[in-house]
Design a protein that fits this description.
There is one protein chain. This protein is of the alpha+beta class. Helices cover 31% and strands 31% of the residues. A hairpin with a 2-residue loop joins strand 3 and strand 4.
């Protein structure tokens, strides 16, 4: 009724608009070329031929090279850090499933929507549904938890 604040109302009242349920995070898009994949191999030290050797990959399960899964995850982290002013690297949590390959020539689009505010670890968190796509193909899906209050955890 009027005048009664629920815990959910109280949480929402203290949280910035970008963390409110229904907020759509700005989409991060990146064209993935073989050069980008090769550069990630250099940076990560992962030179598996499925990523860097087109002749080898041609006979593999995808018929061509694929990007590193962790590279896709890095793009998601970049978007989440932009949204949270770097808070994701400090305090965010992510649960993901890799559900499809990224090929050279694909454009990855990372998007997320705040689902709801939840209590986690004694703090108010924005829970987000995260999706990475290449066109109509889903590449990665997951859940993000981002603390949105300023309380220190004891």
């Amino acid at each position: 009724g009027a005048g009664r604040m629920t815990i959910q109302d109280s949480m929402q009242a203290e949280v910035a608009a970008r963390y409110q349920p229904g907020f759509e995070l700005p989409v991060f898009a990146k064209l993935v070329t073989q050069q980008v994949i090769d550069a990630y191999a250099e940076a990560s030290g992962d030179f598996n031929p499925i990523h860097v050797d087109p002749d080898y990959a041609a006979n593999g399960p995808f018929g061509q090279t694929i990007a590193h899964g962790l590279m896709t995850l890095a793009y998601a982290a970049r978007m989440l850090n932009d949204w949270s002013d770097g808070g994701f690297d400090e305090t965010g949590e992510i649960e993901v499933a890799f559900v499809g390959p990224v090929f050279a020539g694909d454009t990855i689009e990372v998007s997320a929507v705040v689902d709801e505010l939840v209590m986690r670890g004694g703090r108010t968190n924005a829970r987000c549904n995260l999706v990475c796509r290449c066109g109509e193909r889903k590449i990665l899906a997951g859940t993000v938890y981002q603390p949105v209050d300023n309380k220190e955890v004891g």
